[in-house]
Design goal:
With about 350 residues, the protein is α/β, with parallel strands linked by helices. The protein has helices spanning about 5-10, 85, 90-95, 120-135, 155-165, 185-190, 215-220, 230-235, 245-255, 285-295, 320-335; strands at about 15-20, 30-40, 45-55, 60-65, 100, 145-150, 170-175, 195, 210, 240-245, 265-270, 305-310. It has a single domain, classed as 3-Layer(aba) Sandwich (Rossmann fold). Strand 11, helix 10 (about 285-295) and strand 12 form a beta-alpha-beta unit.
């Protein structure tokens, strides 16, 4: 980014859209949330990444920035059904941490450029600019001194690109992703995608945006023993799109040792029955076996820790036993960022 463009971005106002307390009977009364549009210069000047900043009433100088996976938006982290169980954002807020859930470009309330302009590196550059806005106090009115970046699935590849390139995070959470992809099962996922504009809700997107075919999400993202049918229905109703051009460099970074450039603590979490990741090189039977496969891809400065969620499929947030995973993340946060 050249200096003139950077200066223009810094001078651009961050637009606060709404302000409201969290909803739902199980929501912590002291948590407040506000929606923002953060101006970003990628893939072109005038783009904006949407996000929701939620903060405990006592405040927090630590913010966890949460990036969703392919065909998801920030609803993945801020799940509306039975939030006392499934809402990861709410669990982090109730533990005393601020959160910024974002919509990747092309999804949710974010800008929707031509699909060909979007790669995982471009998404990472946009997330980087959101992090800089949070650190500068341009989102929420106070600067955050500690930023932890979290990603899920392809959102974890965005987090890999961001953390290894810009070195502006204090910690990184990777979920639903490791360095050993099951190509056979990834092919099954790809075969379950079709042009998003075939569905009325995605009218206006170009044909390079894809989404899952109706009725396929349960088989793709869930494991039989930890699935609530109401969760699957909510997931289907809130699904989003993904650009075809995000896949190549998303896969590329998992095939390299670029994550060795990450010099801050890392937690990597997988579902034990994640068919896209487990069994293709990494043993997901335990945290110890998983770390054995992943350790070569991280530096000593990452202090790599792993977590395996028993019985969970690809979507750890949406498994019926997800609260165990939430507590593991909170414990890790408190270890490094209390």
């Amino acid at each position: 980014m050249n200096r003139k463009r950077l200066a223009a971005w810094v001078a651009a106002p961050v637009l606060a859209l709404t302000a409201a307390g969290t909803a739902g009977p199980a929501a912590h009364a002291a948590v407040s949330c506000q929606d923002f549009l953060v101006p970003v210069t990628v893939p072109y000047s005038g783009s904006a990444m949407a996000g929701q900043l939620c903060q405990p009433a006592a405040g927090s100088r630590t913010v966890v920035v949460l990036v969703p996976g392919a065909t998801y938006n920030q609803t993945y982290w801020n799940f509306p059904y039975n939030p006392a169980v499934y809402n990861f954002r709410q669990a982090m807020n109730n533990a005393g941490y601020a959160t910024m859930t974002v919509d990747l470009l092309g999804t949710g309330k974010s800008s929707k450029p031509l699909s060909l302009l979007l790669t995982s590196e471009v998404q990472a550059a946009a997330v980087h600019q959101v992090i800089q806005a949070l650190r500068a106090g341009q989102v929420g009115g106070q600067p955050f001194s500690t930023v932890v970046l979290g990603g899920h699935s392809i959102g974890s590849t965005v987090a890999m690109w961001e953390a290894s390139t810009y070195q502006d995070t204090n910690g990184v959470l990777f979920t639903g992703l490791d360095h050993h992809l099951s190509l056979v099962n990834i092919a099954v996922l790809l075969a379950s995608l079709y042009p998003a504009d075939l569905e009325p809700r995605f009218a206006g997107l170009d044909s390079g945006y894809l989404t899952t075919m109706p009725g396929t999400r349960q088989g793709l993202f869930y494991a039989p023993g930890t699935t609530d049918p109401n969760v699957v229905a909510t997931d289907e109703a809130s699904k989003d799109a993904v650009s075809t051009t995000q896949a190549p460099d998303a896969a590329l970074i998992t095939l390299t040792t670029q994550t060795q450039n990450i010099q801050v603590p890392v937690l990597l979490a997988l579902g034990q029955d994640d068919e896209f990741m487990c069994g293709a090189g990494d043993d997901c039977s335990s945290a110890a076996s998983l770390i054995a496969g992943e350790a070569p891809y991280f530096s000593a400065a990452a202090h790599l820790q792993t977590y395996v969620q028993a019985g969970s499929g690809h979507d750890l947030n949406l498994a019926t036993n997800t609260q165990q995973y939430q507590q593991a993340v909170i414990s890790w946060l408190r270890t490094w960022f209390s």
